[in-house]
From TrEMBL:
Subcellular location: Periplasm
All residue ranges annotated as the Solute-binding protein family domain in the record: 80-457
Pfam families: SBP_bac_5
Membership in a protein family: Belongs to the bacterial solute-binding protein 5 family.
Entry protein name: ABC transporter substrate-binding protein
Residues spanning the membrane: none
Organism: Ciceribacter sichuanensis
Keyword field: Signal
Signal peptide residues on this chain, from the entry's feature table: 1-30
Amino acid sequence: MMNSLNRRMRLMTTSAAMALLLATAPQAFAVTPADTLVEGFAFDDIITLDPGEAFELSTAEVTANTYSKLVNLDMNDTSKVVGELADSWTISDDGMTYTFKLKPGLKFASGNPITAEDVAFSFERAVKLDKSPAFLLTQFGFTGDNITEKAKAADESTFVLTVDKAYAPSFVLNVLTSTVASIVDKKVVLEHAKAVTPTAEYKYDTDFGNEYLKTGYAGSGPFKIREWRANEVVVLERNDNFFGEKPKLARVIYRHMKESSGQRLALENGDIDVARNLEPGDVDAVTKKEGIATTSAPKGTLYYFSLNQKNEKLAKPEVIEAFKYLVDYDAIGETLIKGIGTIHQTFLPSGQLGALEDKPYKLDVAKAKELLAKAGLADGFTVTMDVRNTQPVTGIAENVQQTLAQAGIKLEIIPGDGKQTLTKYRARQHDIYIGQWGSDYFDPNSNAETFTFNPDNSDEGKNKTLAWRNAWDPKDLTAQTQAALLEKDSAKRAAIYEGLQKEVLAKGPFVMLFQQIEVAGYSDKLKGFKLGPSFDTNFVYTVSKD
């Protein structure tokens, strides 16, 4: 009875805090609770919270703080991985079998023990669900038919993973740090699994808890998911069963705030503790305010726009090249991304193995007109661009709209929220898409694969990489990308990625714009607030308040 009463009181307290924090009236709550971190964050890209399906940047931050994986990045040296649920691991002499021993005494937030069977089930459901991120695992030769043999529990604390080739071990381990490799509570998931009718595309009679996990929770991370309301709020609560360093705060609330100016005002008024999407002007403004600090971190996140090769005009090689000369990179760098990004024109972000810093393109309208004339489009044409209605992409799209017009290309901007634009993009229904791509794991293959790998360019293709989304069939680049995975010599492997970048730079339907520097303004009452090198390393369990 006492436990039930305590739980009701705790829920009432949380609900009251949320009601105040989400108020929109002028007299909105002006001091955030001492045990709660409140972040203003544009997260309209969240489509699902199921780690077996989630493939959006904002979701990666939520799942990173609520789910655990076998291994994770070493925050002191991101070229290495460290055990999270795994206490140790060994690799067989032939380089194809990875054996993980779990740490003792692990528990999910539910209180259920974490066993190797849960690990095996997590891999099985991700592969069989075959959602957007599944290719990260199926690239190791896993299929719905063989996954139970390739990923299995040898005993309660021993998980064995067998891949199809002797890949570079660092590559395999880095993939296992990605969201899709999160470990779910098998018992909880199966309790919420729904029966479905098998089809030619999906031959299983269960949804493996997919519908439940879109908004539900079955993890073991430092926080547990309490609630997600699309384009409104994400609420996390401390997981008292977490095996590592316990969170210092009771909860974290992400408030969806699209506008930079609104985040800045809320931060200055004390309505939020952190502003996550500040534009250059607002960053400058908050740095002058007493009681507010700023922090930044270079991200492995690239902004780009891409040309769907299903559009006959956009598929012409001269048109692809012309678009790369119709971007005012200097103006964008000096205004729209000042302090929040650096101009970058290759698909590997700075800092990764083999990354090139080549920047051969600049605004050259005359050159672009010449190329369009060669393509038989001297009079220009009309085309659409799907744009998430947040900055800086809206500003960049408008800037590109103006420079394209100088060459006779009429660009129609189609605004939408992150979910709308991503859904259309993933269905290959766009002309031009502008957005961002963040590495799924710290290995050059993460980006190389998505920009150069497309083994099946049909609409039914299973590897839904960015090359596939844009209906680009790079043929020989796909083979080179696969070869790089088997190269043990780092220098030789880097050389392959350098060659791939040069090919995409010259011929690919991707206009790379800049690499992000994530910036946040925050109350100086916070201690331990830090941005990581990727969106799934923005951890909040270390944060406390004075």
